[in-house]
Specification:
about 240 residues; alpha+beta; 5 helices
Length: about 240
């Protein structure tokens, strides 16, 4: 018998506020400097998290991302997939083809056959998603209400989609996902585990006087890890063509 083991990762974004900066902008601020830096700290952390979640496989100082969580090889969660095949995800090579409803359906079927569950959604890069959308847009039809025309409608005709539905599974774009790759994920088993004391927590400001400086410094903390408890229910497909955007 074996059990999975995941290590929480700590992210720290410092938020400095020097005394002279505050004095200079006190009566002339359009946007308070401290408010802007707090906003930037959160955005920088979210960017680092999203980048790691789509790319990191071995760096234990970052979140272990989808390439390792949804894979058929390697060790994940302290379990070797070569020894325990039930810990393997399905991995397919699309073979340099355009993503279409037919071949997306094929890999959804493979996911269900392998893990006995329908994925919650699929995710891919915007270039890959746009190429898949072209398989839909050419089939669109516009229905005009009798006695009305496009010029008489307040919002005009609607075209294209925000999510591309294949066999009941929505396919979403994500700017951080590598082009040519599609992940079919099941949110029943995949989540970002966040420590209750480390969800974008601000430490508060401390004086920098001990360093012979007038000012304050604080930090935004995030303690979390991506956890996949049933890799068998998810699939990674690589090798799709994509549109250059």
């Amino acid at each position: 018998m074996c059990s999975s083991d995941f290590d929480l990762k700590l992210m720290i974004a410092p938020v400095p506020f020097l005394g002279m900066e505050g004095a200079v902008q006190q009566d002339a601020a359009i946007i308070p400097l401290i408010e802007a830096r707090m906003n930037d700290a959160t955005n920088v952390m979210m960017d680092a998290m999203a980048t790691a979640l789509y790319n990191n496989t071995t760096n234990n100082q970052q979140f272990i991302g989808l390439p390792a969580a949804v894979s058929s090889s390697g060790t994940y969660g302290n379990i070797n997939r070569s020894t325990y095949s039930w810990w393997q995800s399905k991995q397919y090579a699309a073979g340099s083809v355009n993503p279409t409803r037919q071949n997306i359906l094929q890999y959804i079927s493979g996911t269900v056959k392998n893990g006995a569950e329908v994925p919650s959604f699929g995710v891919c890069g915007f270039g890959t998603w746009t190429l898949l959308a072209q398989d839909y847009v050419g089939q669109e039809q516009y229905v005009i209400t009798p006695g009305h025309g496009f010029d008489g409608e307040t919002n005009g005709p609607q075209a294209a989609f925000r999510a591309l539905m294949v066999a009941g599974v929505p396919i979403y774009p994500d700017p951080y996902c590598p082009e040519g790759t599609v992940y079919f994920l099941n949110t029943n088993y995949l989540s970002l585990y966040i420590h209750e004391q480390g969800s974008f927590v601000f430490t508060g400001f401390e004086s920098t006087l001990p360093n012979w400086q007038i000012g304050y410094v604080g930090a935004v903390l995030m303690i979390a890890e991506l956890v996949n408890t049933k890799p068998k229910a998810m699939t990674q497909v690589t090798g799709y063509n994509s549109v250059s955007i």
